[in-house]
Amino acid sequence: MSDASQGREWTDDPETFTGALDDLKSEGCLLLVLESAGSDASSAGCRRMLGDDTVDDRRRLFVLTDTEARTHQGVRTADHGTTQRAVAYRTAARNAVAASTNADEVPTTTVRTDLDDLADTVESEVAALAPADGFEAGQLRVCLDALDELLADTDLLDVLQFTKRLREAVTDANGIAHVHVGTHVPGIAVEGLLPQFDAVVEVADDDDPRQRWHLPDESLSTRWIEL
């Protein structure tokens, strides 16, 4: 990760980081997951960010933009207390393959137009997932599988606007969303979107799956942590 905040004092104090992370979980947040293609660490990190099924009434939304993948790494058969939905972005211009969510019971809405309609659909699906008495903090988990695809096919300003709307939809519900992007994506494109994200999570599996977190607003980074 390139440091766009050079000159600031950064800390990796565990207690400070834990407090900042608790704030993100309670207020809602959007996370950028920086990964290598096909990384085992990416799959492990995704599953963790989606939350476990032991929490009563978990709600998950998968936003599927990867035109090459036929399945999504994070979708799994949910326990009885978990509700899952998916949105697949499959425009004709992108020559997309048919998408599967791995779990046949996950209702999937397909968007075939543009990012404005994708954002509209995400907002509608979040509303459809909402419990009658509203979301509890962290109850909603959202995953977007491939920001790379949007950056490759769409103007950066359009992707920025979509990211803003995704963030608003999730944080208004006090949810936690994470967006996957490959390390091969040009840094200038990613850095243009960084202000929309509360944290950047690097994942790697050179030896063992591991992650480290960067919270720019708090000038916080962690050491590598095993997944």
Automatic annotation (TrEMBL):
<dbReference type="Pfam" id="PF24336">
    <property type="entry name" value="DUF7504"/>
</dbReference>
<protein>
    <recommendedName>
        <fullName>Halobacterial output domain-containing protein</fullName>
    </recommendedName>
</protein>
<dbReference type="InterPro" id="IPR055927">
    <property type="entry name" value="DUF7504"/>
</dbReference>
